[in-house]
Amino acid sequence: MASGVIATMGLAAAAFIDAAPVRAQASGCEKMQALLQERQSLVASLNAAQKAKRKLTPQQACSTMTRLVSNGASTVKFATDNQDWCQIPPSFIEGMKADNQKAAGIRTQACNAVKQQAELQRRAQQQAQGGGANNPFSGGDSITGGGVRIPQGAL
C-alpha cells in the first residue's frame, strides 16, 4: 500500500473530530463521533503496521480495508442524512466520499491479491497431488479411470 494514501485517509475525519464535541450537542449526533473514532482507529492500525515496516498479508489488508470502506459508507450515509441536524459541513461529506473511494480502490487490490494467492495455492496443491491436466496418470480420462499404481519393489 502506498504510504501517502494511508496517511491521507481520515484527514476529513480528523478535521471533523476536533470540532465534533461542539457539534455533537444535538441529540442523535453522537453516532457520528463513534463512527469517526472507529475510522480513526482503523487508519491508526494501518499506519502503525507501516511505521513498524511490517507488511500486512493480503488477507489482513483485505479485511482491514473492507472494514474501513464499510465504516466510510456508514459515515457518509449518516452525515448525509443528518447534515442539517448535526451541522455537518458539505466539505466534510465530500472529503469522506473521496477518502472512501481511495480506500475502496486499495481494498479491491488487496482482495484481488487474496484471490490470486488462493488460486496459486490451489494449483500448487493440485500439481503436488499429481492431479494436473498434463499428467497422463491422473485418471482424468475415460480410459484409465483413475490413478495408475506404479509397481513397488525390485523390477
Automatic annotation (TrEMBL):
What is this protein's record name?
Uncharacterized protein
Residues of the region (Disordered) are: 121-155
**Which domain of life, per UniProt?**
Bacteria
